[in-house]
Amino acid sequence: MASHHRSRYREEQRLREGEHVKQGQWELRINKTLGEGNFAIVYDCVSVRDPLARQGTRFALKFEKFEGGGELKKDEALLSALRETGVVPKIVCQGTHRGNSFIVMTKGGMNLHDFRDKRIKREYICDKALHQVDVKLVYALGYCMLWALKKMHACGYVHRDVKLANFLLDHDEASDTARVSLIDFGLSKLYRREDGTHVEERPPDLSKFRGTTSFASPNAHDFKDLSRRDDLWSLVYILIELYSGTLPWRLGNKAEDRSKVKEETRKLKVKLAASEFYQYFQSADGSDKYCFNFSQNAGVAKGKSRLDIIQLKRLHDMARDLKYDEEPKYDELLNRFKGECGGLLKLDRFGEPTVVNLSAFLLPKHHGHNRREAHQGPSSTSAHGVGLTNHSRGGTSEQAQKRGRDQGGGAAHQKRRRLEEVSPAAKPANDEIEERLRQQPTVFKRRVELMQTCISDCVTEDMFNMFMHSYLKEQIPKRGGKYARNLLVNFLATWCDAMDKL
Predict the structure, then answer these.
(1) Helix H segments across 159-309?
(2) Sorted alphabetically, which InterPro entries does this protein's record hold (predicted)?
(3) Same-domain pairing of 146 and 96
(4) Integer Cα distance of 287 and 197 in angstroms
(5) Nearest 5 degrees, angle CA 234-CA 235-CA 238?
(6) Do 186 and 76 share a structural domain?
(7) Has residue 430 got a pLDDT over 80?
(8) Of the ranges 79-83, 164-168, 178-182, 225-229, which one carries the lowest mean pLDDT score?
């Protein structure tokens, strides 16, 4: 029995930072992890050698965790089938490394989940810090995502795991334009036969939940066979989250067990699907607070006449009313979304969309205040839910920095303080050693000469002096302050003790 279990065990493999992956004329160096799933890891990598001499070009490498798993075959097939659509990354290289399969793809930017969290300002709404995307940008991104799904469906596939993290936003800052692409086809499947007819709906399979709990359609929660309508359902939830900053099943779900979370989410999704659309934005306590987008002040009591969510409602109603094998009215929805995006879309001659003027809605890159605002609480926001800056606390930014220094703030400052601190027990011993060396310079000089004699059989005198000069006179002082002195004194004391034993 034990040997049987061992034979079934597959060791998980990971790539190391700096590791080189070679395949034919390609050689790539691994930089960092971009994302991870149950069966594969995606790494950022850079070309060291490639057929087109594009050294230094960045790519995404998807690596199977388990040898012989075959998990990337579906990704390879889908990316090959969709390569002419312009909505998926292109495969540039594939092979095996350390026995595990990998594919190398063009890099498509940051996924929408991370992009939203890092580049969209947080506001306090419904007593929660939420990233709310401007409603015009919601419709522009919605157009691009719906376009990608339309192209995939036209090739005969349904995705079945549509979520924020499976869309990439490639933002070209020079032109301030962005393209959206679709990734991760591990759950995708063909929904039509070679003759173009739709496959029949299979009975529910209670052993298989497909998708991600937050974005899965009500049909997925009921273990039903998924089709094009369910990709649209998931898109509805994505756009609601971008618009309001959250989803209703995240606001009130306190369950810790995964099965309970899924069941509570399912119940709420079914209830809301049959309710008025504005209830998707109602606060968890059932009060008259709503997580509406504050980029437009279009709300009235209970939000029934908000004009900015009408097209989201139409998408929702279409996804809800579609039959299993019914084709969505993509073009109708695309035209409605385009009319609401305020000129943020540009279409090329093939109809492929590009988002323009994106930076107008984003925080600067490496913005330091966004994460801190989330922890300041409602007390640091205005009546309209807009986070206040350091100026609202009184004083200039320089004064705020001084407050941080006075309070021991800043990782670099704290580290410098720790290095300069000397423990009370170590300080007398260090002072004693330093005083002894100062009073007996000839003894110290003789010990140095003896040390040189002892190591002469191993290294030359020049090499020894080079080490002494480099380490004691260049490296240690760089550390600064009392820390350098204490390290130097301890080094010399250990040296002297070693000489005494010779």
Answers:
(1) 218-221, 228-244, 248-252, 258-273
(2) CK1_Ser-Thr_kinase, Kinase-like_dom_sf, Prot_kinase_dom, Protein_kinase_ATP_BS, Ser/Thr_kinase_AS
(3) no
(4) 48
(5) 90
(6) no
(7) no
(8) 79-83
Please choose, from the candidates 281, 311, 306, 283, the residue with its C-alpha nearest in 3D space to the C-alpha of residue 296: 306
Sequential DSSP letters for 352-377: -EEEESGGGGSPPTT-SHHHHHHHH-
**Inter-residue contact 154 to 327 (CB < 8 Å):** no
First to last CA, the chain: 61
Contact 165/112 with Cβ under 8 angstroms? yes
Provide CB contacts within 8 A for 441, sequence distance 6+: none
Residue 2 lies in a domain: no
- Looking at residue 434, its pLDDT comes to 59
- Both tokens of 335, joined, read 């035209």
- Residue 101 exposure: Cα atoms within 13 Å on the Cβ side: 13
Tokens representing 111?
Answer: 């996924």
SS3 162: coil
* Number of domains observed in the structure of the chain: 4
Q: Are 214 and 343 members of one domain?
A: yes
| Alpha-helix residue ranges (DSSP H) falling in 101-223 | 112-119, 135-154, 218-221
Query: Does residue 350 sit in the same domain as residue 496?
Result: no
Residue 3 lies in a domain: no
Tracing tokens 């002494």 back to the chain, one arrives at: 468
Tell me how far apart the alpha carbons of residues 436 and 451 are, in angstroms, rounded to a whole number: 19
Residue in the structure block whose two tokens are 């250990």: 494
**Domain range enclosing 465:** 422-500
Choosing from 53, 80, 107, the residue where a domain stops is: 107
Separation of alpha carbons 344 and 329, rounded Å? 22
Q: At what angle do helices 310-321 and 135-154 cross, to 10 degrees?
A: 30
**What one-letter code names the amino acid at 15?**
L
Q: Please give the share of the chain, as a percent, with pLDDT higher than 70.
A: 65
Burial class (CB within 10 angstroms; exposed 0-12, middle 13-18, buried 19+) of 497: exposed
**Does 62 appear as a known binding residue?**
yes
- Would you say residue 188 has pLDDT above 70? yes
Judgement on whether residues 318 and 191 belong to the same structural domain of the protein: yes
Q: Is 26 helix (H, G, I), strand (E, B) or coil?
A: strand
Q: Which residues pair with 103 in a beta bridge?
A: 62, 94
Q: Which two tokens stand for residue 355?
A: 């988002």
pLDDT score for 56: 86
Please tell me the distance from the alpha carbon of residue 84 to that of residue 327, in angstroms, as a whole number. 22
